[in-house]
Design a protein that fits this description.
Elements: H1 7-14, H2 20-31, H3 33-38, H4 41-48, H5 52-61, H6 67-79, H7 93-98, H8 101-111, E1 120-123, H9 127-133, E2 143-146, H10 149-156, E3 162-165, E4 169-171, E5 176-178, H11 180-187, E6 191-196, E7 200-202, E8 206-209, H12 212-223, E9 225-232, E10 243-246, E11 253-256, H13 263-269, E12 274-277
Parallel strand pairs: 1-2, 1-6, 2-3, 6-9, 9-11, 11-12
Antiparallel strand pairs: 4-5, 7-8, 8-10
Protein name: DeoR C terminal sensor domain protein
InterPro entries: Carb_Metab_HTH_regulators, DeoR-like_C, Homeodomain-like_sf, HTH_RpiR, NagB/RpiA_transferase-like, WH-like_DNA-bd_sf
GO molecular function: DNA-binding transcription factor activity
Amino acid sequence: MQPTEDLYQTVQAAAPELTPKLRGICQLIETDPVGFIRSTARELCNQLGTSEPTLIRFCQRFGYAGLADFRIDLALSLAQKPALTPFGVESNPVDRRAVNFSAKDTIGRKAVHLLEGDTSVLFDNGSSAERLAAHLGNLAPLVIMTRSLDVAQTVLSHKQHQVMLTGGNIRRETMSVTGRLVDTALSEMRFDTFVMGADSVDPETGISTFLEDEAHQNRAMIEASGRVIVLADKTKFSKPRLHRICAMDRISAIVTDLEPNHEIANRIRERGVRVISTQEDGVND
């Protein structure tokens, strides 16, 4: 089976055909979807009375390599069903870091050269931004502001950069801050560059996300920046999500692992956006 747009519905529809062990996993997803996404694999195995290979086999039944990418798509599916998760649900940050780690790290290494000559950079939260932050050690000192506690810690490890947090309410699930204080902090500042990840990149629609407050915070960060660089592995070029962040004309460059002449990359270039592929030498398009 191939991954589907509405994973939650697909799982529930398949439940009657599954073995008792796999059906038990379906039932947990139905009764406690947030717990299924937030728990560790060991916690899930203890709760279900099953093994980790069984969990992986369940995910593979629906076209996924393992638990991490299955749960990311499950979170996206649940975001379209607010009645099931009235307080919202975000994918597990541990899962996000694990999925496509090598691609994200290569993208981050490729993108770091775009920051040469900058003096101030604004960083989004998320696993892609974290990987770029990990490669800032050879750059001249920068002033870096972020709303991600993980990005801040990573940048501090390089020792030469000044790090600021926007302030706001800490969202424990993502180790990032949100709320009106983010807007207040950004309203009086101007950065050379904003580095962001994306839930979805579409040549026509632009950049979008499934969370309303994430879209709002990202718009504020875009307005506070001279240019915008998007980090997006090839899985992010997908159907637009509910909340649009910005149109393509606001993006300066997209760094990706798409092939240089991929049809989507060419359509984005037609919109006037620079596309930099990790599969080509240098940073020129």
